[in-house]
Amino acid sequence: MNATRGPERQLEEATLSSGPSENRGGTTVAGRSPAQLTWLRLRRDRTAVISGVTLVVLLVIALAAPLIEWMYGIGPQDQFQHALDRYGMPVGPGGGVSGEHWFGLEPGLGRDIFIRMTAGMRTSLLIAFAAATITSALGVVAGTLAGYVGGWLDSVIGWFIDVALALPFLIFALAVVPTVSLRFYGPREAVPAGFQVAVIIGIFAVFGWAGTARLVRGQVVSLREREFVDAARVSGAGLGHILFRELLPNLWAPILVSFSLALPAYITAEAALSFLGIGVLEPIPDLGRMIERSLGYLQTDPAYVFFPGITIFVVVFAFNLFGDALRDALDPRSTR
Amino acid sequence: MRPRTTLAAVGALLLITSSSGCSQDSQSSSATGTNVMTIPTQTGVIAANPGDSQGPAAEVPDATNGGTITIIRESKISHLDPPRVYSFAALMNAPLYSRFLTTWKDDGKGDLTLVGDLATTPGTNVNGDCRVWEYTIKDGLEFEDGQPITSKEIAYGIARSFDPDLTSGPTYLQEWLSGTPQYDTAWDFKANKTSLPPGLTTPDAKTLRFQFADPHCDLPFAASLPTSAPVPADKDTGVDYDTKPVSSGPYKITENTPGVQLVLERNANWDPATDPVRHQYPDKFVWTFGPDPDAAASRVIADNGPDQSAVAWNGVPASLVAKVAADPALQERTLLSPTPSANRLTINTQRVTDLSVRQALNYAIDRDGLVKALGGETVASPTTTLMPPGTLGYRQYDAYPAGPNGNIDKAKELLAGRTPELVLGAADDSSGQEVATQLKANLEKAGFTITVKSIPADSKLDETKKKDNPWDLYVDSWAADWPSGAAILPVLFDGRTIRADGNSNSSFVNSDAVNAEFDRILALDPDQQTSEWAAVDEQIMTELAPAVPLYVDVADNIHGSKAGGLFISGIFGSPAFVNAYVKQ
Amino acid sequence: MGRFLLRRSFSALLTLLAVSVLTFLMFFVLPRDPVTGMCPKNCNPERLERVRQELGLSDPKVEQYLGYIKGIFVGRDLGSAQGGYCDAPCLGYSYVNNEPVSATITRVLPVTISIVVPAAILWLSLGIGLGMVSAVHRGTWLDRAAIGFALTGASLQLYFVGGVLLLAFTYHWGIAPVPHYTPFLDNPVDWAGGLVLAWVALALLFSAIYARLSRAQMLETLSEDFIRTARAKGVPRSQVYGRHALRAAITPLVTIAGLDIGAALGGTVITEITFGLQGLGRTAVDAVRSGDLPTIMATVLVAAFFIVTANLVVDLLYAAIDPRVRLK
């Protein structure tokens, strides 16, 4: 990784264009922080712009889902079984695509695919962002402590990381997720969507922090031997200062990249949980569950597979592209 | 001598007439003029003519010898050991390698006859009181190794079914012989391997005798289950016998890799002249385990190579139904038949105590919508009765005419402005969830407030069978072990059987009037019983409304172009292999 | 070095023990009582209770756990319903599958290994190859195409890709045989044919990570001084890239690959379900769904064993290469 060069490079650029504007032969040169430099590089990268804009659009759609529903006029639970034939298949081309149902109808229950996808995307993005944020936060804290303090704390945290990574995620999720709600809600109470979502975020958190922690620990370990940290320590800086003012600023690049790559991973993971039947349950709309059910209809109603499949692909692809572009932008040496 | 014994004295056997109200076809109630589904009515008889029990079985037209039939199934067959056989796959597999005291002759179109298999007749009711039954064993019967099969081996087979280690099978013979559900404490098989359980005797090598404390007129039916299969005592390996039982049928087990495949090959020591039902056309049967229903159906549809003589056990999934139905070539290779598996929305009458609410549920139900949600008419067929069509003596009725899409107005009228809050317990697998979603939306139109509570799919059955379960509604399924009302209505609706858990009466109804009716009918001659069950079916619905009858499972299985002689069993609603052959 | 190995091995063992305890605890979160599965229709609660006693399910949890662990090291007696005495390593008896669990594992483990190892070779070759091409032709359309291809693969969903591959190559065109497992020694061609679609699907998805990684590593290495020196000295380009650059770039790749393969061996659930192959992952899922504790324990322990071993090997590699690591 580039952490060995990061601070020096920043030092270089700082000396070239330091602090307040300096007249050099008539032109004003403004000082730029690493963040501003990253932003400039991103803006210049066409791939980053396209994927970034796509993501913003998708985010807006997801956030505005209730508004869209109000405008579209059909809710995610509304059924139109009269438009299904005797085998439960939607009548009409493209799986029932029409002016009223932009993406057609689901076979069997006859619900509108477009509005369910919009709502499903909302759930997926919410879970992905929350899970990525929490695991990054937990991972950074654990990794930094382990890496910097070292000794027994490192061993203990390291061991926890090992155990968390050794446990098979899907198996445990399969065992735990369906039963957690039974412990919090009575046998006659409905489990609200919020709780189901929280459970999924929770299980991602329990398993996901370990990867980030390990990554951050590695970074911190190589950083703490560096001269500027030694200098801070020698001049009497406290642990807090070293952690937040010396180490963390040099870590934000890999953390940010890790976060941006975690997002599509969590979208995929949530879809995988739904594929196994332990994601959010009916009737809450969910992209993963929709894809899983639609796969069986690949031969008889391909449109039903196409719409959610393409959507989730676009979302994940956009995140991956943006994450890649972000990494390139953060690292000045891998220039195009 | 009591009048009834004249019949027995002649040696002719009980005749259950098929005529009582059974002769017309009943259409599925979604009367959209479809030609997909006409439910052939089962006409079932216990054979009166001893000739029916004799072999050889009638030749299947155009059948040729040779070839391999492949059966593709997702999960492995749970048990091969005859007294442990109870799942549909195990029950359809057993006749290949095992013979029983009695068995069903099934023409695949609804005509069923119970005949003697190892026995010369379906059973002699010695005193006419259904307490003492006698069977004469045929000559010339052999195991796969040439050892003869006599009444001793059959009795041993029944005796070892008392071993508590041999779990999972039906328990009729054990409970009836010992007189208690705790049969394994009443008689300890392991301590008494050389003797026989109480009531079971073998006066000589060709005679088998059952003596019960209580009358059991259904013994001929119960004897058709694999518990009555013969087992050689010197080859009995206890729990391990499950991997390779000794064959008494036309095929023997040659290879058993659990979860992967099961291979059966010809048994040279099976004598077709003694067998009224089975054939031995193919060289081999191979069960292949693993592919899910989509994969299995897809490859059989593709019809490549060995798949041409294959059959997909798990049926055409809802997602592929449209493709199969649209293609006449595929239609020809499809077995389509209703099954005896009836599904109902059980109402927990301990919680939903108001009859008018239960009746309102019956009026509100949209069966057409539910069938669509399940995948259409080739997956489910709507029904309004508690017994499935196909039960002996079945009579169609509709106690609460809801029309194909429900009679919301009538339901609302019955509710008179109330909005009862009901909790529907649903399995958390995808089909359970979809059915629950459909039902919730449907019933809420009539004013009900439905809360769907998800129950882990594997434990749902056990949980709803508990007396103190917390739900108001749950979807239940029941397939009788033989097509008599006696194996359905008293089991599901007799309140005296209610206990802490393990209840089949999951409506928890207990009506003295209905219980008395059950007692009265069970004491009748089997031939008089059939029409009575149909009457009591309607009585239960009208007086108690303990459930909303929903639909009957439809078997929709596809096979390859070279597989012939396959049909759907009228007893268990699954593909039967006794007439199978490979077109050369 | 020896002390380092000892320390890490001890830690690995502790990890496995912790995994076994957690799995055991997790099982008791499951609401399903496995014994009732033996009793499909006419169930008798009293008899079930007796069966439960015989299977030891009524014993206190700690006792059950210790009995299981003892069985792994020494073997134990399981009672007549479960096939009598079970030799070490005794993984218990599955009353769902009706066979000793060690027999189940012996049967399903080769399937998972046959899926993962060739797929890993494929995705590593494809990924590193694409990454190298991108790095060497940095900035050109080739670079963009290679990375674009890799990213597309990484953005697809495995069950989606699997479904489409099956539909196209198996059912529609009939080129690939229906996915199934034949032991390699029985028929190598059939073995490969039955698994090739799974390999392709996995390779499409996982090559991206390695493409990106190897590209980044290569680029970093290529700008190092020693490369400039080699080029200045006139070393042919193929040697520059092959011998010098690749060797430096490969180490972190190999370590991550090791961890990935270890994790993959631990659970290829989605692959196995999509392609209908009965491997370790599928067996584990079925076991959880039916509440089959001995099988759950065994599959989880085997999976964890692979991950822990892979971690150990990777740590050893790091320690061998970078002396600083050993000193911590």
Layout of SSEs?
The complex is a heterotrimer of chains A (336), B (584) and C (328).
Chain A: H1 6-16, E1 22-24, E2 27-29, H2 34-44, H3 46-63, H4 65-72, H5 93-96, H6 113-149, H7 151-166, H8 169-184, H9 193-224, H10 227-234, H11 239-275, H12 287-295, H13 302-330
Antiparallel strand pairs in A: 1-2
Helix pairs in contact in A: 2-13, 3-6, 3-13, 4-6, 6-7, 6-9, 6-11, 6-13, 7-9, 8-9, 9-11, 11-12, 11-13, 12-13
Chain B: H1 5-10, E1 26-27, E2 38-39, E3 43-46, E4 68-73, H2 88-97, E5 102-106, E6 111-116, E7 124-125, E8 132-136, H3 151-160, H4 172-178, H5 183-186, E9 200-204, E10 207-211, H6 219-222, E11 251-257, E12 261-266, E13 284-289, H7 293-302, E14 310-312, H8 318-326, H9 328-332, E15 334-347, H10 355-364, H11 367-374, E16 380-382, H12 408-415, E17 421-427, H13 430-444, E18 449-455, H14 457-464, E19 473-479, H15 489-493, H16 512-522, H17 526-543, E20 547-558, E21 563-564, E22 567-568, E23 575-576, E24 581-582
Parallel strand pairs in B: 3-6, 4-13, 4-14, 17-18, 17-19
Antiparallel strand pairs in B: 1-2, 5-6, 7-8, 8-10, 9-10, 11-12, 12-13, 15-19, 15-20, 16-20, 21-24, 22-23
Helix pairs in contact in B: 10-12, 11-13, 16-17
Chain C: H1 2-27, H2 45-54, H3 61-73, E1 75-77, E2 85-87, E3 93-94, E4 99-100, H4 101-136, H5 141-155, H6 158-172, H7 188-222, H8 225-232, H9 237-266, H10 269-275, H11 280-289, H12 293-321, H13 323-326
Antiparallel strand pairs in C: 1-2, 3-4
